[in-house]
Amino acid sequence: MSEIATTDELLTGDAYLESLRDSRRVYLHGELVDDVTTHPAFRNSARSVAMLYDALHDSKTRDVLTAVDDQGIRTHRFFMPSHDTAELLAAREAIATWSRLNYGFMGRTPDYKAAFMAGLSARPDFYAPFDDNARSWYRRYASRGLFLNHVLINPPIDRNRPVHEVEDVYLHVVRERDGGIVVSGAKMLATGSALTHATFVAQNSAANLEPGKAEDFALVFIAMMDNPGVTLMSRQSYEQRAISPFDHPLSSRFDENDAVMIFDEAFIPWEDVLVYRDVKKATAFYPQSGFVNRYTLQSGVRMAIKLDLMIGLFEMAVRANGTDQFRGVQAAIGEAINWRTAIWGLTTAMCHDTEPFGENHVIPKLPYAATLRMTMTHVWNQLHESLETHLGGSPLVVPSSVHDLRDPDLRPLIDRFYRGSSGSAEERIKVFKLLWDAFGSEFGARHELYERNYSGNQDQIRLDGRNWALRRGELDERMDFARECMADYDTDGWVRGPWQ
Ligand SMILES: Cc1cc2nc3c(=O)[nH]c(=O)nc-3n(C[C@H](O)[C@H](O)[C@H](O)COP(=O)(O)OP(=O)(O)OC[C@H]3O[C@@H](n4cnc5c(N)ncnc54)[C@H](O)[C@@H]3O)c2cc1C
Known about the structure:
The chain is an alpha+beta fold. A hairpin with a 2-residue loop joins strand 15 and strand 16. It is about 45% helix and about 15% strand. The chain has helices at about 15-20, 45-55, 60-65, 85-100, 110-120, 130-145, 240, 250-255, 280-290, 290-320, 325-350, 365-390, 400-405, 410-415, 425-440, 440-455, 460-470, 475-485; strands spanning about 25-30, 30, 65-70, 75, 150, 170-175, 180-190, 200, 220-225, 230-235, 260-270, 275, 355, 360-365, 490, 495. The strands form five sheets. The protein has a six-stranded mixed sheet with strand order 2-1-10-11-7-6, with no helix packed on it. A four-stranded mixed sheet has the order 5-8-9-12. The model has no long low-confidence stretch (mean pLDDT about 95). The protein folds into three domains: about 15-20 and about 40-145, Orthogonal Bundle (4-hydroxybutyryl-coa dehydratase, domain 1); about 150-275, Butyryl-CoA Dehydrogenase, subunit A, domain 2; about 290-455, Butyryl-CoA Dehydrogenase, subunit A, domain 3, CATH 1.20.140.10. It contains 18 helices and 16 strands. Flavin-adenine dinucleotide binds near residues 189 and 191.
C-alpha cells in the first residue's frame, strides 16, 4: 500500500490574523469596523486566538495538539474524528492545552465547532444528497484548522408562534438562484463571530419545525464571514472598556463578542449547503451529527480549566482575607474542588464509555453529554453564589484602578490599608481584581449568562435528557425495571421472592 501524502497547512497565528482582514461587515457603536485585528474592541481577543494557532506549530505543544488523520491531513486532534478511547483522550488533552492558554475563559475557540465538523468526515452520508459537500468541507476545515462560529437560535421574537409564521425575522430560504440559494433573516447569538472564518447555520433541538410548512426554515449551511449579505451587530465590547491588564486581566484579552447575525439576501453556494428544505434532517442534526456528544466534551474540559483558575483564586482570596481557617469557608472551597472533579470525571467517562459513530469511529455516549450539559449550568451558578457568600464585600476592597497604585501620594496608604493577611497590598489587589473580572464585572456577568444558557434554555437542557432516553429505549428500560419491582407483589401480597 502506498503511503498517504500528508498535508501540513494549519494556519499560524500571523496567517490567522491576516485571514481576518477581509470585507466582513462588523458593526459596533454605529461604526463599520475596518479591521478587527487592530480595532480596540477585538484586537487582543484576536491575538488570544492567534496564540492558539501558533501553539499548533510550537515544538513544545505540536504533538500534543496535532496528529495526522486518515486522509493524511495534519490537524488539531479534536478537528478529526476519533477511532477509539485513546484518540478521544488525546483529543481531550489537546482541548485542555488550548484552553489553558486562556485559563478556560474562551468558550468558543476553534475546537468548539470542531465537535461538529469532524463528524462531516466520519458520517458524510447523513448529509446526502449533499454528502460531497460534507466531505470537502471537512478537508477544507481540518487542513487549515478553520475557525467557525455557529448560529442555531432564532431571535427572541414571537416565540409563541410557529417558526414558519415569523418569516419577517427568522432565517429562511428566499429563493434558489444559479449556483445556490438566497437566504434572509436573523439569528442569535454568534459568539466570537467577528474573529471567525465562517458561520455554521442550523436549528437547535428546541426548534419546532412543522413538516409541510417549515421547509424553507429547514436548512443547515455554512456562510463565509465576508459574505456581502451577512452583517454582524456586535454587543458592547468589554475589551474596549478595559482600563488596564491589571484592572481587567480577562476581559481585556478574552472577550468573545456575541453578535446578532443578519442575513439580508445572502447568497449561499450549493457547495456550502448541508441540509436543504428537509425538516427531518434539520431537526435530527443536533442529536445525530455527533455534535452534542462532542461539544460537551470540549465544554466540560474548558469548564474544568476555568474552575482550576477560580479555585486557585478563591483560596488565595480567603488567605488574603484571613478567613481561610474558618470551617464554612474551607467547606465552600472543598465543594468547588469536588465540582471540578465531577466535571473532569464526566469527561473521562465520555472518553472511555463511547458509542459507534459512522463506519469506524466513536463518540462519547449521549447520556453523558446530556448530563454534563446540565451539570455545567449548576456549577458556575453555584460557584458564583459561593464566592459572594464567602468573600463578603472583600472583592470591592480595591482601589478604583491601577492609577491609584501608581500615585506616589496614595501608594503608602494603599500599601498600609489594603495589605493582605498573607501578602502585600499589591498582591492582594491583584487577586481580587482578577476574581472580580471573572465573576463580578460585566464580562463576568456575561460569563454567568453564557454558562446558564449557551447550550439551550433551562428546560431544553433537561427535556433533551428525556427525549433522547426515550428515543434510545433507555426510558423503556427504566420502566421495565419499575415493572419488575411491581411484579414482586399484587393485591394478595408477595407473588415471588423470599418474602412469600
Ligand atoms: C453569552 C451567550 C452566548 C451565546 N452564544 C450563542 C452562539 O454562539 N450561537 C447560538 O446559536 N446561540 C448562542 N446563544 C444563545 C443560546 O443558545 C440561547 O440563549 C439558549 O439556547 C436559550 O435560548 P433563548 O435565549 O432563546 O431562551 P428561551 O428558549 O426563550 O428560554 C427562555 C425561557 O422561556 C422558557 N421557554 C422557552 N420556550 C418554551 C416553550 N416552548 N414552552 C415553555 N417554556 C418555554 C424557557 O424554559 C426559559 O425559561 C448564546 C447565549 C448567550 C447568553
